[in-house]
Amino acid sequence: ILLLCISGMKAETARYSVPEEEEKGSFVANIAQDLGLTAEELSARQARLVPDGEKQYLHLNQHTGDLVVREQMDREELCGQTEPCLVRFEVLLESPLQSFRGEVRLTDINDHAPVFLNKEIVLKVPESAMPETRFLLESAQDPDVGNNSLQHYSISSNEYFRVYTRRRNDGRRYPELVLNRALDREQQAEVAFSITAVDGGTPPRSGTALIRVIVLDMNDNIPVFTRSLYKVPVMENSSQDTIVVVVSASDLDSGTNGEIAYSIVQNSEENFKTFKINTETGQIRLKKTLDYEETKTYEIDVQATDGGGLSAHCKVEVQVEDVNDNAPEVIITSLTSTLSEAAPPNTVVALFNVRDRDSGDNGRTTCELLGEQPFSISLLAAGAYALVTSESLDREQVAEYNVTVRARDEGSPALSSSKTLFVRLLDVNDNAPTFTQDIYTMVISENEPAGTSLGRLSATDADEGENARVRYAIEASPPGTSAAASFLSVDADKGTVRTLRPLDYEKVRAFELAVRASDSGSPALSTQAVLCVLVQDKNDNAPVVLHPPADSSAAGELVPRWAQSDYLVAKVVAVDADAGQNAWLSYELAKATEPGLFRVGLHSGEVRTARAVTERDAPRQRLVLLVRDRGQPPRSATVTLALALVQDFSDAFLQLGHDPASRQQPQEAEEDMLTTYLIASLGCVSSLFLLSVLTLAAAKLCKARLRAHLSPPSPSCYTDGDFVSDGVDVAGMGTLSPAYRYEVCLTTGSGRSEFQFLRPVL
User: Fold this and answer.
1) Would strands 260-265 and 275-277 be described as parallel, antiparallel, or unpaired?
2) Which helix or strand (DSSP H or E) is residue 228 part of?
3) Residues in domain Cadherin (predicted)?
4) Where in the chain is the domain with CATH 2.60.40.60?
């Protein structure tokens, strides 16, 4: 019994690649491995390869499962400039009947060098042309694509011109010649140099042409086109010699200098084969019929040259419009000519493709069956269909069917084609659910409460009833991996994904887990998909200052008195645990002892002097810096920076050793103690002074009383030699006993008074 479920046909296309022009028998891929089959199974199921086109470039070895090159393929011949260049095919298996689609991409090799259609390019330039005047040159042709295509132009060394490489809308590059300095026909009537076009291959290839610049005598006016760009639509069924467009240019000069000749700058070989221009009228006509399926757009560069050699350029963009000139083709890729009558509905009978080379509505096709029959057509993919049973079959009633499939496009008028299939009846549906996406990506902000919905999983099942009822579940995490399944839950019936607890971006930024969709059949079939959850950051973390530490504000930084403007004092380093804009930090000076003396870098955190330090600046500075992020709402942190303005090392030592912030209270205690000492000293000195004055007064009083009771001394009592010149003692004789005779001399001088007790006079 040969059965095939429709959903089983909708497998992903297998993709391979091979360089162009590979030799016959070159290995491409092993189909058996990709299909999960052994070589024996592949051979037993009579695997065969069905090409998408008429020619078969690939071959499938049934015994090994190897896909090899059957015929050498030239990418430029198969696809031209179209990229990517794909060779499509199908692999058909029997018992049961299955189909797998595949495609081989032909990668380009650098097998073509750029070529100029004209090996000698003649350019007429008037000697009056100003420097920086630009001249359009013929493009080189390189059928390779990508990096192997033409990349740039260069010219040989000369003193008059340089070349620029320009790019057209279709990606092709063309050269533009620029005049470096004014030409002088009397000095040099012709300038010749070579131009080289180089591609980007390894090794690079190049093509060269000769440019001859003929310097013309003075010509006042250049031709001017009425339009710089002509956009023209042309139907693809236009006949040969049809007028495409008429370009027009005018020249204010008279005589020969005012006569204009039109020409097409041959920027591609295709343009040369397709268009021609009347040199006098500017009419552009078709050389051949157009084919929308081959080329959709043409870009033509038209040059108008007056009799004096001056020229101007315009661009003609020809848009080829599609007409419905291709009927759909029905290509049978697989047919089960014998079918069991017990086959349930949706049993695949045949596989076929419908291809229409037109585009738009003209290339959009529909398929239908002619007559009332128990079959229907199911769309598998773009252009791929399956003929399936639509109801139960009974061989006893109808043993054979002739099924006619008709394909019709939506053009005007519509074109169609048909194919008849013969099915003979001889005398059961295993579809697994299919997720709408292989990978689901859901986003949630951090700190969202448990139960927040992230999104919904969706899977479909081509079956009916219980076999089509899908239930969803999260696969358990393998041992040794993070328990991502503990973060989420999924509704078994609806597929709604919800959080089980708040997520923290700083701990879990993203995670993925496997989800399963199972049907309710017996046995149940299931499929898996990947669920990726991205946690979005919120600004829930304030900046943290790393330097200076929070407990080091008393130490401070030293700033020399000779520091000039922009002197680096310190650097504040902070981090934010958030991400993105929430972690972008900016620094501000919130408070300062002298606001104009320091500034802080907005993004660097560097504290620098805003001006030169002067003697008037306070020796101790205190800065409060604010670090703020850019979240919404923003969060911030502050740091205090103590600075000391110093002259030298000793000053710095004193500044650091007498920090007012740390020694304020001891200093006040010392000052109070010093005041007490000063008061006590002043009291002592005052007491001594009063005591001295009282003693002196008492001594004088005693002396006056003593002299009043004693007789005056005799003349012989004193002699000239008895007095010591320095006043230490006094000699002489008196009426007092020698044992009681003393002389007291009171000396005064320079604010000091003292008593001197002299020795007795013997």
Assistant:
1) unpaired
2) none
3) 10-116, 117-225, 226-330, 331-435, 436-545, 551-662
4) 14-107, 120-216, 224-321, 329-426, 434-536, 544-646
Report yes or no: 34 and 457 within 8 Å, Cβ to Cβ. Answer: no
> Is 331 a residue whose pLDDT tops 60?
yes
CA 443, chain centre distance (Å): 20
Rounded Cα distance between 42 and 91, Å, is 10
The tokens for 421 are: 């299939």
Token reading at 650: 């000793």
Tens of pLDDT, residues 156-182: 999 999 999 998 887 888 899 999 998
Segments of 347-394 assigned E as strands: 348-355, 365-369, 375-381, 384-389
CATH code at 224-321: 2.60.40.60
Element at 701 (helix H, strand E): helix 660-709
CATH 2.60.40.60 for domain 120-216, yes or no, is yes
Helix, coil or strand: residue 31: helix
- Check whether the bond before 96 is cis (ω within 30° of 0): yes
Rounded to an integer, what distance in angstroms lies between the CA atom of residue 597 and that of residue 608?
Answer: 9
Provide the residue count of the chain: 762
Pick the CATH number of 544-646 from 3.30.1330.40, 2.60.40.60, 3.40.30.10, 3.40.1280.10: 2.60.40.60
Chain centroid to Cα 474, Å, comes to 34
3-state secondary structure of 716: helix
